[in-house]
Design goal:
Strand order of the largest sheet: 1-2-3
Shape: elongated
Structural class: mainly alpha
Strand content: 5-15%
Radius of gyration: 32 Å
Largest sheet: 3 strands, parallel
Number of strands: 12
Helix content: 40-55%
Number of helices: 19
RNA sequence: GGCGCUAUCGUCUAGGGGUUAGGACGUGAGAUUCUCAAUCUUAAAACCCGGGUUCGAUUCCCGGUAGCGCUACCA
């Protein structure tokens, strides 16, 4: 057990600390989600901190994009967003403390010198670790040089012997020989902290109790543990979360297509579904069966919060499965009240340039609900409801299997006559057209195909009669007439 | 290269010293239906390899292999 173990009775405080050098990607989103779930489950505090000390690569747009992604996912934070770029004094003070305590020292080596030495080391097959030359400069000499205006970075003096480790809540004991770690830079020569310093200073200053973050940080954690010790501070609980990989098993990146949370939003993924999916990627709720011996896959946010614990987190990396996401999303779409779904669909259609009188979207929503996996799918699924003119289709599709153009023409003619007079509700339409099939002596399958193609412009479409009802008499008749003309031209 | 971590169906995973190794997504087949979808039934599909420990290892230990991560005055 580490000597500095956090008092177990402290109210949990966790954070999500993205660096605004890119959009909120799925890996970050899941880390944020786990922190959020943990905070909500324990009644703790969720803090948002923007790690923007890399001025070159950080930007305001990225920051607002990240916040937008968080809001979309419903991950509300209790404190922040804090910006590291505005907390530089804290880091300088922390570095000074470390220097005063003999745990860090100024380093006058320039970037160029270091690069050169590293190159030489590689060429000679030697380890590339920093050679600690500035560590040997007497303190007074160093102070004099600084006073004379010489620029210096601050490096941590890593102990030459022993090992440093910590007990990870997910991975268990992780330990590394101190000789494996070089004297890393805490503060750059320009006074800006590196990640290693700023995380520790902030995590300490913000009173964090649990550090839940990606497993890519596991190897660097000992560097942070050393600082906690040097600062005589209590260690938080570290919980590293396995990484999310692309289908090719490499770390998910832009190469794999959509990786930003915003992209999924635009695709028509519902935030609840995305959250559900992300939660199940690398975490399994304990002891939840659906009563049939089947594990559940669909969890409400409430359930996720209730069930979330650190020990359900798995240790191995997970491949992001778009198919499963789509399936989960379709589950959520089908569970949605029609009213609500229809409201969500309005802007999707509008964006695609599909406009319709009020009530139209509400009317067609139940017809496509089971046929779409994303909101975006609604556009190709329902475009014919909006289009004044059907997109061109193959006239041969009008002909039922084992039939000919004459049969199709016959069917359409019958249909046209019927539609001109019957009440235009789906029940009546169905009754009338079924009766027509009987009188024509053909089965309903072949009977309805020409009509469906004529009316929808395609062979696969939502249920015919409901569709016709929504389309209205006029449109249906017009489209059937057009189909007859096309058929005639086939001869 | 060095160091660290990980390893159950194609994918996400459950499980655990003796099991028909369970579920979900996806895939195949069938049923149902006006097409598609949905739904139901069903099938194929996994314990990385080698040594131990043990009466017995997929499970525990060691080694190998593979994958991933870290190895910056990036985060």
């Amino acid at each position: 057990m580490p000597e500095n173990q956090l008092s177990p009775d402290r109210a949990p405080r966790v954070r999500f600390a993205p660096s605004p050098t890119g959009y909120l990607h799925v890996g970050g989103a899941r880390t944020a989600l786990f922190n959020w779930l943990f905070a909500r489950h324990t009644g703790g505090t969720f803090i948002l901190r923007i790690e923007d000390t890399d001025f070159e690569r950080s930007s305001e747009e990225m920051t607002s994009g990240i916040l937008e992604g968080m809001r979309w996912l419903g991950l509300d934070w209790d404190e922040g967003p804090f910006h590291q770029s505005q907390r530089l004094d804290l880091y300088k003070a922390t570095a000074a403390k470390l220097v005063a305590g003999g745990h860090a020292y100024p380093c006058f080596c320039t970037r160029e010198e270091l690069d050169q030495r590293r190159k030489d080391a590689v060429a000679a097959g030697r380890p590339t670790k920093y050679d600690q030359r500035c560590r040997r400069i007497p303190r007074q000499t160093a102070e004099a040089r600084i006073a004379a205006g010489e620029a210096a970075a601050i490096r941590f003096a890593v102990p030459d012997e022993g090992s440093t480790g910590f007990d990870d809540a997910v991975f268990g004991r992780v330990e590394i020989q101190n000789t494996e770690i070089e004297d890393f830079v805490l503060l750059r020569a320009d006074g800006v902290p590196t990640y290693h310093l700023s995380v520790v200073a902030d995590d300490l200053d913000m009173g964090l109790t649990h550090i839940i973050r990606g497993a890519d940080h596991i190897s660097n954690t000992p560097k942070q543990v050393m600082q906690y010790r040097a600062l005589d501070a209590e260690l938080p609980v570290f919980a590293h979360v396995p990484l999310i990989l692309g289908p090719d098993r490499t770390r998910l990146s832009k190469r794999h297509g959509a990786t930003s949370v915003t992209a999924y939003k635009e695709m028509g993924i519902l935030p609840e579904a995305f959250r559900n999916f992300l939660a199940l990627l690398g975490w399994t709720p304990g002891g939840m069966k659906d009563g049939n011996g089947k594990d559940r896959e669909v969890f409400s946010s409430r359930e996720l919060v209730d069930l979330f614990t650190l020990d359900g987190i798995s240790k191995s990396n997970a491949v992001f499965d778009n198919d499963k996401l789509a399936w989960l999303n379709s589950e959520y779409i089908r569970a949605m009240p029609v009213e609500e779904l229809s409201t969500s669909l309005e802007p999707v259609f509008a964006e695609a340039g599909l406009t319709a009188p009020p009530g139209k979207v509400r009317a067609l929503t139940p017809l496509i609900r089971e046929r779409i996996k994303t909101l975006r799918d609604a556009v190709p699924a329902a475009d014919f409801f909006f289009l004044p003119e059907l997109a061109p289709y193959d006239a041969a599709d009008l002909i039922p299997p084992k039939g000919d153009a004459a049969l199709a023409l016959d069917i359409l003619a019958h249909a046209r006559e019927l539609l001109a007079t019957t009440a235009f509700d789906h029940a009546t339409l169905e009754q009338a057209l079924r009766a027509a099939a009987v009188s024509l002596g053909i089965k309903t399958g072949p009977m309805f195909q020409p009509i469906r193609v004529a009316v929808c412009g395609r062979k696969n479409a939502p249920p015919l009669f409901e569709t016709m009802e929504v389309l209205g008499r006029e449109t249906c008749l017009k489209r059937i007439q057009q189909a007859e003309i096309r058929l005639a031209s086939l001869h």
